[in-house]
Structures are given as structure tokens and as C-alpha cells.
Design a protein that fits this description.
This protein is α/β, with parallel strands linked by helices and 355 residues long. It contains eleven helices and 15 strands. The longest helix has 21 residues, at 262-282. The protein starts with a strand and ends with a helix. The structure holds pyridoxal-5'-phosphate.
Length: 355
């Protein structure tokens, strides 16, 4: 590859991917039946390895879907009869809210300005809300929520289900999967894989809610509703013919991450974030999108550029590094720089020099 992609998603592909694609061809896994033994074995081991990597309890369910967009839809359909509650601090959280509207539910929301987080101690969730929806790492603004505060909020409302979008922070963010009922990500960001695979992790409570709604004859969708996914997962299969290549690659990357150790990967992410942040803090020409340092994401850094973002991106591209534009209305004045496990410490050091 000619360039290193520091874009927020899709992003830099993990360096071992070409090798694993070759292996998949040689092992003929792409031609084999997804009802056969080879697939089932891989499916079992992928789920087990992910549980080990992210410290997910034994009893939680792991399902493969198409994307985070699909997770938004399935979660609303399967856990909400009427009312969801959304903490919205950017474009992705807003989309989750809109999907609830499109599915004819009655969502309510706490909204704060772009670039801000929430004062969790003052949040009051309406009595009728069945599901609380949050975006851990708002990729449009570069705000990361403090997960300890989110876990505390759940403890104040133990009877409500919680859904957390970790698309641009998995596997770096440390989640208590016994408390968070629906956690989801797609693999083209922090895992450095090709796009087209989403992962949904559920507590037994989320599954029970879907089964309850199904019994009440509420529409929970079809082949990817939670009970149907469970029925097939118990046979170590998926309802549809899945994205076998991406599941294969995901399995391989998880093995590499297990070998390296998740604590080491998280430590290295902090180290790289520190390099980027220190550069932008000491250089007066740049301005952080997120004003309060404690709210800044360590996986997506967003700054206002002295020149237009187009010019800056062009300038850095000459060194072989691709930065992302700001999101939506911020695209002309801001750049987004991702800091995922596929970005080496050495490349981040070089990037800081080129800035
Ligand atoms: C990229 C992104 C999504 C959307 O992911 P898809 O795989 O395109 O569905 C959702 N939420 C966040 C926070 C994202 O960064």
C-alpha cells in the first residue's frame, strides 16, 4: 500500500491482512458451506476469543451482523416497545435517535452541544424509557464518554436496558459487559479490517426483552431478530450466508491481539494519543474541537487547522499519510486523525514530525 490511512473509518488495514487473505484462499474456507464443520469451528472460536479479549461474561451472546447501522435498527426493534432514551452529543448518537423515530417508536433525548459530554450525575431518565442509548466515542466530534460514569448511571437505573455504540473505540474502551446490555461495533475502525461486518454483544436481559416482545406479537424484525440469531448461534451458525472472509480475518486479528495483550494495546494507544495531543496543545496554530481534555477521545483526535483542511490533507499526503476531513459541517476547517491499533507508534511519531 502506498499510503497510511489515519482516517476515522474505513481506516488503516491491519498489516497482517494480506497474509490472512492468502491463507483463507489456501484453506478454501471461502468455498465451504457455512453450515459445515469448518465454519462452525471458526465461529465457536471467534466468539470464545472475543470474550477472552474483551472480558465478556460467558452468558452474553455475540452475534455477527452487517454494520453498526444494522445494530441501531435491531436493538431498537428488539428491546423497545414504545420508548427509548438517547444521550445525543453528535451525529452518530443523533442517527440512533432518528432510527427509533423511523421505526415508529417514541424516543426522547438529552442533547448537548457538539464537542461536549454529559453531566451524568444530573441525568434523569424518564420512567417510561425502556432502553438508554449512548455513543461511547462520538466520531463526529471526538468526545469519549467516561465509562465509569455510564456504569454508575446503569446502577442507578438497573431495570432499564443500556445500549452502547463502541464503533470507533473498540477494542480500546474497557466496558463492563455484565452491565451494558447491547454493545456493538463494526470492524473497519479499531480492528483494522475491511468494512462489511458488525458485532453485537447482548446480555441475557436484552435477549429476554426481545423474546417478551415477540410473545406480545410486537414486530421485532425477521432473520436478524435476537431470538432467530440465538436459535442459529446455538447450532454455531448464522441465519444467513454470512461474511465468511471477514469473520475469518476477525478471528485472526483477535488471535494477534490476544498474543500482544489487550493491556499493552491500550497502553500503546494512550502513548500515541499523548504524542498527538501534546503536539496540538503546544502548537498555537491548532485548536481542539473538544475543549475539556478529560472529554477527549484517545482514538479519534479532531483539531481546527490553521490552513483549510483540504490544504492540510494535501500537504500531509505528500508524506504518504492520509488524514480525515472534519465531519459534516466541520469538514472544511477541521481534520480528524484516528489512532487505532493498526497505527504503529513509529508512524504516529512520523506524523507528528510532518505536521
Ligand atoms: C462509523 C460509525 C458508525 C457507523 O458504522 P457503519 O459500519 O457504517 O454502520 C456508527 N457509530 C459510530 C460512532 C461510528 O464512528
Amino acid at each position: 500500500m502506498k499510503h497510511i490511512y489515519f482516517t476515522a473509518g474505513p481506516s488503516q488495514i491491519h498489516p497482517s491482512i494480506p497474509h490472512y487473505v492468502q491463507m483463507a484462499m489456501e484453506e478454501e474456507i471461502l468455498c465451504m458451506s457455512h453450515r459445515g464443520e469448518a465454519f462452525q469451528k471458526m465461529f465457536i472460536d471467534t466468539r470464545l476469543s472475543l470474550k477472552k479479549l474483551l472480558n465478556i461474561p460467558e452468558e452474553n451472546h455475540i452475534f455477527f451482523i452487517a454494520s453498526a447501522n444494522e445494530a441501531w435498527e435491531k436493538i431498537i426493534e428488539n428491546t423497545v416497545q414504545k420508548h427509548s432514551y438517547h444521550l445525543v452529543n453528535g451525529a452518530f448518537g443523533k442517527r440512533f435517535f432518528q432510527i427509533a423515530q423511523e421505526l415508529k417508536k417514541h424516543p426522547a433525548a438529552a442533547m448537548v452541544a457538539d464537542g461536549e459530554s454529559f453531566d451524568f450525575s444530573s441525568i434523569k431518565i424518564p420512567k417510561e424509557s425502556e432502553l438508554v442509548c449512548l455513543t461511547h466515542n462520538e466520531s463526529s466530534t471526538g468526545v469519549a464518554l467516561n465509562m465509569n460514569h455510564v456504569h454508575e448511571l446503569k446502577k442507578r437505573y438497573p431495570e432499564k436496558l443500556f445500549a452502547v455504540d463502541t464503533v470507533s473505540s473498540a477494542p480500546i474502551v474497557d466496558i463492563d459487559y455484565s452491565l451494558m446490555d447491547c454493545v456493538f461495533f463494526s470492524v473497519q475502525k479499531g480492528f483494522g479490517l475491511p468494512a462489511g461486518l458488525g458485532v453485537l454483544i447482548l446480555t441475557p436481559a436484552a435477549m429476554e426483552k426481545a423474546q417478551y416482545l415477540e410473545k406480545k406479537d410486537i414486530n421485532i424484525g425477521s432473520y436478524h431478530n435476537f431470538p432467530t440469531q440465538l436459535k442459529f448461534a446455538l447450532k454455531n451458525q448464522t441465519p444467513e450466508t454470512p461474511n465468511v472472509l471477514n469473520i475469518y480475518l476477525f478471528h485472526k486479528i483477535i488471535q494477534e491481539m490476544l498474543q500482544k495483550g489487550i493491556q499493552n494495546i491500550r497502553k500503546e494507544t494512550d502513548e500515541k494519543a499523548k504524542l498527538l495531543n501534546e503536539y496540538f496543545e503546544t502548537n498555537q496554530n491548532y485548536e481542539f474541537f473538544v475543549k475539556k481534555p478529560e472529554n477527549r477521545s484517545n482514538t479519534v483526535v479532531i483539531v481546527k487547522t490553521p490552513e483549510s483542511s483540504t490544504l492540510m490533507i494535501k500537504r500531509i499526503k505528500e508524506y504518504g499519510f492520509v488524514l480525515g476531513k472534519g465531519y459534516g459541517p466541520y469538514k472544511d476547517d477541521y481534520v480528524r486523525i484516528s489512532n487505532f491499533p493498526s497505527h504503529s507508534l513509529q508512524d504516529v511519531k512520523k506524523l507528528v514530525q510532518y505536521l
